[in-house]
Design a protein that fits this description.
The complex is a heterodimer of chains A (149) and B (646). With 149 residues, chain A is of the alpha/beta class. Chain A is built from four helices and four strands. Chain A is globular. By secondary structure, chain B is of the alpha/beta class. In chain B, a hairpin with a 3-residue loop joins strand 2 and strand 3. Classes of the chains: A alpha/beta (149), B alpha/beta (646).
Chain lengths: 149, 646
């Protein structure tokens, strides 16, 4: 369904990343929110807050990838948030499989408060993957509709 | 400590949305009382705010949008804005007039190389304006800016109308008027002084497409008492003031009696005193409370030595050898209030007495001088000699002829005439561009909702109004130097800071150029907060910026109010909750309990002291009843959409 883009094209994928307030957001604050081009963040208190509808909402609006940045097991501020986040991630993955969306477009990265390098590396990796996968074919014309989750 | 919701209602300005998103929310509740009170709708709050910030030039720009004569109104306006000012409920109203005068003076001092340029004529039509008073000049100013060719005809040798010949120089120096007129003349308005129009109809035939009659009211009313007109020494107040303003500095007489209680009566009395008269009396038939003249003017007149006799009416002018020697008067008393609430003066029988006088100046009222009209004109004229016009469009019964200002309303104030000039200019523009005149001219959409003092205002430190510096009595004697002086910069800023800023936003539109990142969003009245936030997030393009309907706003820190941001906890919309219990299952803090609601159905209840606001229950909830405060579904999806638009 998708066209494979060659590596030389200047495609920079649009990415929405949902950021946990307690770990990844702290790292973003340290790097002064200097994110890669076309990468946007949405801060939430806990990644468990993000249910699959928000992920699909982002895809609908035409993002090329969604990045979930949460805490590793045992470091959640709320003790159980990462577990819920993983559940949501799995549900979203399954639905994406049914819909025929490449599973590479959605990624969950668990970083602790100090793992600044890990975050940057995995972001780069994610962007490279998306460059290979190509633009999102599922963009809907949203000029008229009003969508509520 | 203050709850954030309370501030949003009154203040609503410049609060970061609960530290979550770096967008400023600006809310406009209604127009401030001062703006509603001003006949010309000058945006008072905006220029006060700009003065408080020290941006004097921008403040003047705001005034000039609706009032081309800031220097003149800053001196002689009757300040309806100050009497409506809500600060008077706390201590004293803001000295708005003094502040306006300050910025006008500031421009005079500091204007360097900033000159107005002539406006390019873009329209074919020519407009004639009869009379160069405030109404005529305002209309000329508006019309030339719309691209018409405008000619102003003035019968007197100087322009300015009643402002020049009716207001003495100690209140309004002639230079200030000349500056206002020059500014308008440099725009390209042709002002022809010494040109009395004798045939109005021929103007339309000689190439003018519309005529605006703003002749003012220059003819003093007669006293209608015996002896009037028999003796020398009776001079009407407009004639008297006109003579003085043309440079006649002769002493009018030893004892001068002015009849009337308006501003022109007080002006005449103070003028006579400056010309060297020994005694000046004012007779007024009601008591001081009913006196229409400005309170401060009356105070000043009494201070300078004018004797004011209340509840006295003239009966007869006494004369000898063809000269006035005195005035027979009668004492009055006030009747009980009639149906309209006014107390009529009633003469007291047998209380007649005589005052000696050399000169009697009646200053009871004025009416338009219609002698320029031909005998067989077909204008509709009221019984007070004023023009009958459509109250909205100012069109007379003859097409192409408009009338406004004192010529329609009878003697009123400069700011009223300015307002009339604006309306007439709009209406003439409509007439010449072939639009329907009857269609109501937009008033600018001012609301009239009562703004009440809130608790925030009661926290304000009480502070008296600034005292406008004045000349001492010795300095005033025998000259026409201006009595009131300008405020200093520090005084002006201090005074402007007293403004309560009714209806949070200042509407100064200063933020528009500053805000490239669209941090400041424009709103109008009538939006609920949630509605407003959604619209920011989802449809910024639906907020078109035009001068009339949407205003950009600048806001500045009002006071250091400690603000409590609501804690991030989950809340339940009880109407939506179906009692499935999934949130109870998922919450590991046991903050959520199922309790029996009013209808007997179990619904979720969040213990806010235990809840830590992760929002996972909101993600789980199938009916959308659970919400994490500040992180609602609407908020998150709004943020996603908005970030993608960047």
């Amino acid at each position: 369904m998708t066209k494979m883009h060659n590596k030389k094209s200047k495609f920079t994928p649009t990415i929405i990343s949902f950021v946990c307030n307690w770990s990844a957001y702290n790292i973003l604050r340290k790097i002064e929110f200097r994110l890669p081009a076309n990468m946007h963040y949405v801060r939430v208190m806990c990644l468990g807050r993000i249910n699959p509808s928000f992920i699909f909402k982002a895809f609908e609006l035409g993002v090329d990838g969604v990045l979930l940045l949460g805490c590793p097991p045992g470091e959640c501020h709320y003790n159980f948030g990462n577990r819920i986040a993983e559940e949501h991630f799995n549900i979203a993955n399954n639905v994406m499989h049914l819909l025929g969306v490449e599973k590479e477009r959605l990624s969950l990265i668990q970083v602790s408060n100090k793992d600044y390098l890990i975050l940057v590396r995995s972001m780069k990796k994610f962007i490279n993957v998306l460059k290979r996968v190509g633009p999102n074919p599922f963009k809907i014309d949203t000029s008229e509709k009003v969508w509520t989750p | 400590m203050t709850n954030i919701d309370d501030i949003i209602d009154r203040e609503g300005v410049c609060l970061k949305i609960a530290e979550i998103d770096a967008k400023f929310r600006i809310k406009k509740i209604d127009s401030s009382p001062c703006r509603v009170a001003c006949p010309a709708g000058v945006n008072v709050k905006a220029y006060l705010g700009l003065i408080a910030l020290g941006k004097f030039e921008q403040a003047l720009e705001v005034v000039k949008k609706t009032n081309p004569f800031p220097g003149i109104c800053g001196r002689i306006c009757t300040y309806p804005c100050e009497s409506e000012c809500r600060r008077s409920e706390i201590d004293e109203p803001i000295a708005i007039r003094a502040l306006k005068r300050f910025i006008a003076d500031y421009e005079l001092k500091h204007a360097k190389g900033k000159k107005t340029k002539p406006i390019k004529r873009t329209k074919r039509e020519k407009i004639a304006i009869i009379g160069s008073g405030p109404a005529g000049l305002t209309a000329a100013n508006d019309l030339i800016r719309s691209g018409y060719s405008v000619t102003v005809f003035e019968a007197l040798p100087v322009a300015g109308g009643m402002m020049t010949v009716g207001i003495p120089a100690y209140r309004l120096p002639k230079e200030i008027i000349q500056i206002g007129i020059d500014t308008i003349a440099t725009l390209g308005v042709k002002i022809r002084t010494n040109t009395k129009i004798t045939d109005v109809d021929s103007l339309l035939n000689s190439g003018y497409d519309a005529v605006f009659i703003a002749i003012g009211a220059h003819k003093g009313l007669k006293l209608n008492i015996p002896g009037e007109g028999d003796y020398k020494g009776l001079i009407d107040c407009t004639t008297f003031l006109k003579k003085v303003s043309f440079g006649d500095r002769n002493k009018p007489g030893k004892i001068v009696i002015v009849i009337g209680g308006g501003n022109s009566a007080v002006d005449s009395a103070r003028t006579a005193l400056r010309l060297g008269s020994d005694e000046v009396h004012i007779l007024y038939r009601r008591s001081r409370r009913e006196m229409p003249a400005d309170e401060l003017e009356i105070n000043d007149a009494e201070l300078e030595g004018v004797k004011i006799h209340y509840l006295v009416a003239p009966v007869k002018i006494l004369g000898k050898d063809n000269k006035v020697i005195g005035l027979e008067c009668i004492k009055m008393r006030l009747s009980e209030p009639d149906d309209s609430g006014r107390r009529k003066p009633v003469p007291i029988e047998g209380s007649e007495f005589v005052i000696d006088a050399d000169i009697v100046i009646p200053a009871i009222s004025q009416k338009p001088d219609l002698s320029f009209l031909p005998r067989n004109h077909d204008f509709e004229i009221s019984k007070w000699d004023t023009f009958e016009v459509d109250p909205y469009t100012f069109a007379t019964n003859k097409p192409g002829f408009f009338a406004g200002g004192d010529a329609v309303t009878g003697p009123k104030t400069v700011i009223d005439a300015t307002a009339a000039g604006h309306r007439a200019a709009k209406s003439i523009d409509r007439y010449l561009s072939g639009k329907d005149l009857k269609e109501r001219i937009s008033e600018g959409g001012f609301g009239e909702r009562e703004l009440e003092l809130s608790f925030v205002d009661t926290m304000i430190e009480k502070k008296k109004c600034v005292q406008v510096p004045k000349l001492t009595l010795q300095e005033r004697r025998g000259n026409f130097n201006e009595v009131e002086l300008s405020l200093t910069e520090e005084q002006a800023i201090e005074e402007a800071k007293r403004c309560l800023r009714c209806g949070p936003c200042m509407e100064c539109v200063e933020c528009r150029p500053d805000c490239d990142k669209k941090l400041i969003v424009l709103s109008s009245t009538g939006l609920t907060e949630e509605d407003f936030l959604i619209r920011i997030h989802w449809a910024p393009e639906q907020f078109p910026v035009t001068d009339n309907s949407w205003n950009g706003f600048l806001c500045w820190q009002r006071m250091e109010i400690p603000v409590v941001v609501d804690p991030v906890v989950c809340i339940v919309k009880e109407d939506f909750c179906r009692g499935c219990g999934r949130c109870e299952e998922v919450c590991e803090y046991s903050a959520i309990k199922m309790v029996k609601g009013e209808s007997g159905v179990f619904i979720a209840n969040v213990d806010q002291s235990i809840c830590r606001g992760c929002g996972i229950c909101a993600a789980i909830c199938p009916s959308g009843a659970m919400m994490a405060r500040h992180f609602t579904d609407k908020w998150i999806s709004g943020v996603i959409e908005e970030k993608l638009k960047q």
